[in-house]
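#structure-requests
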Amino acid sequence: MERIRTEKETLELASMSNATPARIAVGRAGTRPPSSAWIRFRHDHAAARDAVHSELSEEFIRGYAHAKQLPVVQSMDRDRADFVLNPPKGKKTTDEQLAKIREQCPSQQDVQIVICDGLSALAIESNLRELLPMLEEGLKIQGITSGKPVVVHFGRVAIADQISHALEAKLAINLIGERPGLSSGVGMSAYLTYNPGPNTISSDRTVVSNIHDRGTPPVEAGAYIVHLAKTILDRKVSGVELQKTL
């Protein structure tokens, strides 16, 4: 026989449930979750799938990227299905695309910002308009030079290394849509890599994750990324090596 919770236990459980989007204390109906909990799960799972298959909209490309005169390029993936099935192809772009970037972007800047749809284009469209102005203005205030941001279709984290290396930037900042979970399909991350290039590995990166309105708000994240960028440029290391200096 199931023990009846005390009033204190009920209040504590309600407090925990309200403090996290995690699925705790959803109850059960016999051996199964209640219908309401199962429907919410199916809804959130569908939203996560939609995020993975989302692409940057025409409104975003023409109304935002083109309006700001940002170069828009593509990784070596042909389309979204190719991107999902062949992760390595999303880590690089072609020589032709790099030539286009070199024509439109200044080189030898302190920071090169790369904007990738990643595994949630919805995350970019939901957060970038608030984050990017704070990031660019913050870098300017700190006296850190920044090249023209580049938008990448079907891009993964490492493509920022290739682009930033081609532009001879000291620090790559990749703003990318993250793999969605069941609590949010619009989470964005920023990966900061000092001295990016073909020999960069994952442990060389410093990451700010969970950027969305129910995590770290975009404006707050932008200010923190500026702080990290200055620290990295001052210490000339990122990732694991940066942690050793803190």
